[in-house]
Amino acid sequence: MTKPSIPVGIICSQHGPYQAMGREILKSAMMAVDEINNQDEFDFAISAHVRDPRGIISEYHTVCDDLIRNVGVEHIIGCYTSASRKQVLPIVERTDRLLWYPARYEGFECSDNVIYVGASPNHNVLPLVRYVLDNLSREIFCVGSNYVWTWETNRVTRELVTAAKGRILAERLLELGESAVTHIVDEIVRRRPPVVFNTLVGSSSYDFIRAFHAATAAAGLDIPMLSCSLCEPELKIAGPASAGCITSSAYFESIRLPENRAFVARWKARYGEHSSPSVDGQSAYVAVYLLARALQRAGTSDIGEVRRAAAGHRYNSPQGPVWIDGSNNHCVLTPRLAVSNAEGQFDIFWEAEAPVRPDPYLTQLDIAASPARDGTLPNAPHLRVVK
């Protein structure tokens, strides 16, 4: 018998400044859709309706409106940047739909109409900055894209660094898709900062990485680069210049878990031996499975029922155990730190001993205290990081 079909929207840019990551999100989401549709475990099939906003921020609202009005979807997976998520957020709240957002983001948001599958700032920014403060420097030079993710990530970084009696040496921003990076690279070479924190997105980041590597090598400088977003497909795009970047993420292809090894094998069988899944793509894969399992348990696509069915359900995903914290709709994830190598992969050198609860508003943060061995942070008697 033919399974009943449930329409699900997928919004990810296949063109524009961050098309590479949009395509990775689509590839991972469609892999999960096809797997679910071929499993007897699920008594329904997912009908994917894909929309391409082409990296144009205003188009995200347009395609979301089309999916809701003309297709009748109740669940949407996608958006890569926080700027695009904030375009979609008003319409999903107004029409009471559910957005399953796969990308790591800056935190300080909580909506009943969003499931935040990617990392919160306590999953990636905090472990990275703690590592830098303890092992590299108390001075950081920041370069990033001129939008909310960079603004908020830099703000949290500044709070942590200044509390440790360090300082942010500079914050240099480029518009999304901007390729004119020479003036920033020249400043870095001239000032010789001990570390550079890169929150550029898409093509801007790849141009910067290549220019940074060439200029620092020519000047005989060895300046570590930091990232909370760089992933394996981007290492291949940026080329050998990307080696040596210290990256904080919940997912790397090199995770040695049986679930991940099986996932990577299926991925390569589908997309080619030389391809690699990305962190946000893998999160889209997880989002589809979390949605499908919640739909199965709820027995309906009604978002209230699905949200209740999704909360607290443990899924042994490629990145490890993942579940949704029903108090804030963010996922419990395992933070990790790794350094990129010349083979286009990451060597993991630290991970939390257990999954860490999401803390999107950093209400559990005491910036004067050191993190526990499992990556969690003690309760704070006062708040320093607030919106």
UniProtKB/TrEMBL annotation:
An example molecular function term from Gene Ontology annotations: amide binding
Pfam families per the UniProt record, alphabetical: Peripla_BP_5 (PF13433)
CDD domains linked: PBP1_AmiC (cd06357)
Name recorded for this polypeptide: Transporter substrate-binding protein
Organism: Bradyrhizobium pachyrhizi
